[in-house]
Design a protein that fits this description.
heterodimer, A: 115 residues, mainly beta, 7-stranded mixed sheet, 4-stranded antiparallel sheet, B: 112 residues, 6-stranded mixed sheet, 5-stranded antiparallel sheet, 0% helix, globular
């Protein structure tokens, strides 16, 4: 399994500002993902963070709103830009294990509230 | 488009009971199915992973089954305890896309 940490664990931000969330993994992994969980909802994939190239975004998510960096195989950041109250969610980083089972592991999440 | 449904949305039972949570999916072209546990405001903990070629997996008091042809999975919890109270999510990994599609979850409450 992989141990994943996220910073910050929670934040309260004003509308119109941006927040960058960091994800650190304790081992090198090929696949890293960012998910959003809106209040009372299940998880939705935002994008796959690709090392050395641009992230791959899911339908409904765009790079200008959610820029992602992946400088190496253990670290990624997600920025939530020009925030509105609708961006209030838990943002989770996940990785796919290297053992060939394609099991996914999740970080503790970042709880974002936009006022 | 793959859709995952979990029934019931919420379940409350007394301590000690055995219980079953259900998950169904619309497209059988999956690589695997995972069951997760989520405590309020927290991240996800992986409970069990079933590969598409497998029928069931067990871990302690938990047993998960998979019937890929009918698009169904169940999570059986034996001798439930108050510490089992959480939201349980199932997710399928779409073949070729390496993308997890989640159900809406079952919120489980075990009453002492």
């Amino acid at each position: 399994s992989a141990v994943i940490s996220q910073k910050p664990s929670r934040d309260i931000c004003q509308r119109g500002t941006s927040l960058t969330i960091q994800c650190q993994v304790d081992s090198q992994v090929t696949m890293m993902f960012w998910y959003r969980q809106q209040p009372g909802q299940s998880l939705t994939l935002i994008a796959t963070a690709n090392q050395g190239s641009e992230a791959t975004y899911e339908s409904g998510f765009v790079i200008d709103k959610f820029p992602i960096s992946r400088p190496n195989l253990t670290f990624s950041t997600l920025t939530v830009s020009n925030m509105s109250p609708e961006d209030s969610s838990i943002y989770l980083c996940s990785v796919m294990g290297q053992g060939g089972s394609y099991e996914q592991y999740f970080g503790p999440g970042t709880r974002l509230t936009v006022t | 488009k793959q859709e995952v449904t979990q029934i019931p949305a919420a379940l409350s039972v007394p301590e000690g009971e055995n219980l079953v949570l259900n998950c169904s999916f619309t497209d059988s072209a999956i690589y695997n199915l995972q069951w997760f546990r989520q405590d309020p405001g927290k991240g996800l903990t992986s409970l069990l992973l079933i590969q598409s070629s497998q029928r069931e997996q067990t871990s302690g008091r938990l047993n998960a089954s998979l019937d890929k042809s009918s698009g169904r999975s169940t999570l059986y919890i034996a001798a439930s305890q108050p510490g089992d109270s959480a939201t349980y999510l199932c997710a399928v990994l779409i073949q070729g896309a390496q993308k997890l599609v989640f159900g809406q979850g079952t919120r489980l409450t075990i009453n002492p």
